[in-house]
Design a protein that fits this description.
With 228 residues, the protein is of the alpha+beta class. Helix content is 49%, strand content 15%. The chain has a five-stranded antiparallel sheet, with helices on both faces.
Length: 228
C-alpha cells in the first residue's frame, strides 16, 4: 500500500525535530523517509560548500548501493543542477530526481547548494512522486538554515568527540584503509576488541560506517586531513 504523503511528511518532521533537539544529523532521517516514500533503490544527501567541497552525509540503503549514483552525480557536475527539483535518467542508475536545498547566506555567501538530495529508482517519477516531494521540501527548506548551522558547527569543532587514545589509533589505521583484522594485528589486539573500539568510534562520531567515520573525523580535525 503506497505511503500517504501527508503522513510520511509528519513522521519525517517529527523525527527530524527530535534529531535537531538531540544535536544529531538529520540527513539519515530525511533520506530514509523520502527514499521509502519514493520507492527509491538508492539515495544520497550531499553537502556542498562555497568552494565546491563535497561530502556525503547520508546514504540509503547502504554505502555500496549508492556507488553508481555518486559516480553519476560526479559525472554530470553541480553546474547542471539549475532547478530546485530536476529529474533525469541514466541507463545504469535509473530514473533520478535531484532536490537542491539553497544555502544559508551566512554560511555560503558566494552561492552554491548547501545540500543536494538524490533519489534513484527503476520506474519513472510520476505525479504522485511530485506531490510527495513538494509536501516534503517546503518544511525541509524552512528548517534547513538551522540544520546548516548545526552542521557547520559540527564540521568546525576540532577534536571534540572524546575519543580515547586507543580509539584515535584505531581511527588513524582505519583512515589508511586497514580492515579490522589488520588493525588488530598492528595494535596487538583481538578482533573483538577492535570491533568494540570501532563501535565506540561510530557512536561518538554519530556515523554508521567506516567511510563516514573517516570523513567526519577528517573534516572536524580529528584526523590531520580527510582521507577517502
Amino acid at each position: 500500500m503506497p505511503t500517504d504523503p501527508s503522513s510520511m511528511v509528519l513522521d519525517m518532521l517529527a523525527e527530524t525535530l527530535v534529531a535537531i533537539n538531540e544535536d544529531r544529523l538529520v540527513d539519515p532521517v530525511i533520506i530514509d523517509h523520502l527514499a521509502r516514500a519514493l520507492d527509491a533503490h538508492s539515495a544520497v544527501s550531499i553537502y556542498f560548500d562555497k568552494e565546491d567541497a563535497r561530502e556525503v552525509i547520508a546514504h540509503y540503503p547502504t554505502e555500496a548501493a549508492v556507488k553508481d549514483l555518486l559516480e553519476y552525480i560526479s559525472d554530470i557536475g553541480l553546474d547542471s543542477m539549475t532547478h530546485h527539483v530536476m529529474v533525469d535518467h541514466h541507463q545504469n542508475v535509473g530514473h533520478v530526481v535531484f532536490v537542491s536545498i539553497p544555502p544559508d547566506e551566512d554560511l555560503a555567501p558566494d552561492g552554491g547548494f548547501a545540500r543536494l538530495l538524490a533519489f534513484a529508482r527503476d520506474a519513472p517519477y510520476d505525479e504522485e512522486s511530485g506531490i510527495t516531494l513538494e509536501r516534503a521540501c517546503r518544511p525541509l527548506t524552512a528548517l534547513w538554515p538551522q540544520v546548516a548551522r548545526m552542521y557547520a558547527k559540527r564540521r568546525t569543532t576540532k577534536g571534540n568527540c572524546n575519543l580515547t587514545s586507543r580509539e584515535r589509533e584505531v581511527l588513524e589505521l582505519l583512515s589508511q584503509g586497514l580492515l579490522a583484522t589488520s588493525i588488530a594485528s598492528r595494535l596487538n589486539l583481538s578482533s573483538r576488541t577492535v570491533h568494540k573500539h570501532l563501535g565506540n568510534i561510530y557512536n561518538k562520531l554519530e556515523v554508521n560506517d567506516r567511510l563516514m567515520a573517516v570523513r567526519v573525523a577528517g573534516s572536524s580535525g580529528i584526523l590531520e586531513a580527510p582521507t577517502s
